[in-house]
Amino acid sequence: MDDRPDTRPEIEPYHWNPDGIWEDLPVMKSKDKPDLIICDPPYFDKKADEYAKESISGLSRQTYLKFLENFFIFLKKISKKNTRLAFINSDWRDFQHCPADKEEPGQGILVVDYYDIFKKTGWALTHVIQAPLSSERFNAGVVSAMQKKKILGVVSRYVMILR
Ligand SMILES: C[S@@+](CC[C@H](N)C(=O)[O-])C[C@H]1O[C@@H](n2cnc3c(N)ncnc32)[C@H](O)[C@@H]1O
To answer: Cα of 57 to ligand 1 centre, how many Å?
Structure first.
């Protein structure tokens, strides 16, 4: 989202407004349809403090999932039959505070929850590619804190490929 018009003019920062009218965007009228869409949204509220105030990571769980549902419907509208969507995400759990045996169903957001939304919005899954988080992310201090609180960490992201 960093604006770098001098060095990367092809990257145009744009904030998707959850309440916005996307039907009026120029991309809707374009004759060219994308071959590939890469969607790497915030993993719910993870890093919410680091993203802009317009970030969807500030939304409630329900509004965040509803935003994605509307966004996937929008992506269908701007796609052609063979457009591929690469969706990057991971299970979201309160991995800093919630011990594994206190985890309740429906509390986190798991990749299968995203899959449910894809099925509902007409996207069909062809691949799930595992993309492990780096060991820098899981340094000794973080792992030790999780061990003390008996927290089961999330160690991988996934790239879902859909058509
Ligand atoms: C997991 S990061 C993806 C980072 C990206 N793949 C990269 O390499 O820079 C999620 C990104 O989504 C952006 N984001 C959050 N809400 C957004 C919104 N409403 N519209 C556009 N981007 C948003 C955040 O600013 C953040 O850069």
So the answer is: 9
